[in-house]
Amino acid sequence: MLLLRSFVHASARSHDRARASPAARRGALVAVVALLLGGACGGGGDDDDGGGGPVGTQPVTCPSANVPVCTSGTGATARDVVSDASGRSTPALENTAARTALTTNLGQLDAAIGGGNITDARAALTRAREAITTARGQLANFAGDAADLAAIELILDQIAPLIGVS
Measured in whole angstroms, how far is the alpha carbon of residue 64 from the centre of its chain? Predict the structure, then answer.
């Protein structure tokens, strides 16, 4: 019985110590809210990774990205297809500006897929599509580019769903 009384008394003392003063509770609450707001607002630091997304966001990357290109073999196949477009159709373009833009963007797409950076791959795909649209607007001056632009666009259309773009 004495042992039980000692236990209850010790428990009550620790419970009293566990009760914090209102000021201490407010301080703890302020710290928790600051921590939560800091995380929600990017923590005040610059974590721009250069990944093509908004500043402060982390890039979507393999293997955590839920896209087909992150599965075994699909990434290598996608890179081969992009490399083929970059090596065959792009050099054949008469329009120097389009050739330069597509060489750059297809190279970035290939590198992003190879590195598993889906955010960068999506950005490079968007820029490559924009370059094709611009080049199509100049087909009156470079009529011979139509077939090569169509071939590159077809490849981009095949790559898009592999990186989660519709």
Answer: 11
**pTM tops 0.85:** no
Instruction: Report yes or no: 85 and 152 within 8 Å, Cβ to Cβ.
Output: yes
Q: For the chain, which residues make up each domain, given as ranges?
A: 2-44, 68-163
Query: Distance between alpha carbon 58 and the CA centroid of its chain, in Å?
Result: 6
H/E/C letters for each residue in the chain?
CHHHHHHHHHHHHHHHHHCCCHHHHHHHHHHHHHHHHHHHCHHHCCCCCCCCCCCCCCCCECCCCCCHHHCCCHHHHHHHHHHHHHHHHCCCCCCHHHHHHHHHHHHHHHHHHHHCEHHHHHHHHHHHHHHHHHHHCCCCCCHHHHHHHHHHHHHHHHHHHHHCCC
- Residue type at position 61: T
121-134, pLDDT tens digit by residue?
Answer: 999 999 999 999 99
Would you call the peptide bond into 22 cis, given omega within 30 degrees of 0 as the criterion? Answer: no
